Task: structure prediction
Amino acid sequence: MAQYIFHKADSRGHDHHDWLDSRKTFSFGDYYNPRRMGFGALRVLNDDTLPAGKGFGLHPHDNMEIISIPLKGSLKHEDSAGNKAIAATGTIQVMHAGSGLFHSEYNNSEDEEAAFLQIWVYPETLNTPPRYTLGTLQQDATRNRLHAFIAPDNADGTYVRKDVWFSTGHFDHGTSFTYPVHQQGNGVYAFVIDGRFSVDGKELSARDGLGISETAAIEVKALSDDARLLLMEVPMNIHQ
Amino acid sequence: MDHNIPLKLLAIGYDPAIMQVVERLLNSHAGWEGVIALTGAEGLEKISTGNYDAILLCVGVSVADEGTFREAVNTHHSSTIVIRHYGGGSGLLENELRAALDHNK
Result:
């Protein structure tokens, strides 16, 4: 029987600084909730807003898959592997920290705020070489259908491990679909970016999250227009 | 565990630049005292001669090395908590430790 864990948007941890406003679904930084240490291999889901010109200064990471999904504006990325990129709305940034690197992420605008989802997934193997990929999310690929922008076989390199799929789509009110879980033992974390959805009969509003495990398929229906959903399929056992 | 005395922490990792950040973060936390080891040999030496509440296995430490460190901890100080630190001095550091300490209460 499917298992569910529901995280309402306003139950998330909240940090506000002059350089960052962050809503955290799972424990991170100063926000600690022992019942919210992640969902399987999904460890971090931060909903971050950066004021104009502000951001994360140079700092290190290792052994984590870090996915950034810009929702508003753009991020200026630089890292110690020599990568420099602008991750704008409509792109997906995937940073495999592996054996270690330093990076910075700033709002690329001096006039307007930027917003993005910062998502971390435990790595499949430790201490492998760092890798950076900036993928593109085609608008027409996500209109009333799911687009797997992270998948093991993605040709543009936007993959994180062999058992992780991230999908998103924009849906009109009433559009429904079934999401088949790709791999036995995986769970799916559904996060509503905009609008409202019914996921396996449970109603979710913007920035609500629902973790679903021990199931082979998930039933989804958009309950509003311009509704945008993110589905993150991850192994529930992080050390496979 | 008496929380009136500092929590003594050893972080073992092989990337000096990242480990400097880990050390700084550990020692910037009230009630924590952190030291680092930058090689496997230094880690084993510190495990055998020091007395730590928790040991963090950080950047570069392989699964095989982890087994060696855990075995050394079991030999010398079986009550010491050993955890894998992911992320490199990241926002996970504090709550990884707090979760491990809560689990061992």
